[in-house]
Structures are given as C-alpha cells and as structure tokens.
Amino acid sequence: MGIDIAAIAVYSFTTFSTMPKSKTPKPSEFLTSVEAAQLAGVSRKAVLGWIKKGYLRARRKGVGPTSNVLIYRDSLEKLLRDREINTDLDE
Fold this sequence. Notes:
Blueprint: H1 5-17, E1 30-32, H2 33-40, H3 44-53, E2 58-60, E3 69-72, H4 73-90
C-alpha cells in the first residue's frame, strides 16, 4: 500500500503540459478619459466632447450618468490617425 510515484509523474506531466500557454500581455482594450486625453494631447473635456459628438466609441464602466467612461483604444487610434491625415492636407 504505497504511493504510486509513476502514476503521479504521468498525471502531473499531462496536467501541466496541456495547460494553456501564457500569452504576451496585450494593451488594454479600453482607456480612461484621462489616459485618452494624455495620448491625444488634449483636455479630458475635449475627449468627453468627442464621445458626445460620436467621434469616439465609449461605454460606461458602471451604471448611471456619473459613472466613469471607458474609451475603446482602437476608436481613439483611428481618430488620431484621421486627424493626422486631415492636418497633413491642410498644409
């Protein structure tokens, strides 16, 4: 009535070898309005205005009108690219 070491070794090998590999961390899908403002080089109020006008996709973090806003990172990146292109045309 001993411990079957071979069975434990096989179990631990199959368990750990089939575990999903850790992925390299991706940048967050969302930004706060403060983070978005810093990246865009504008005020937080300007970012909130862009959301209200529909230039940025965003969602509320909680429930209610006073909850924090989370901006989709790809939406901000697209807006900044478009703004850069339009600025180049003005020159």
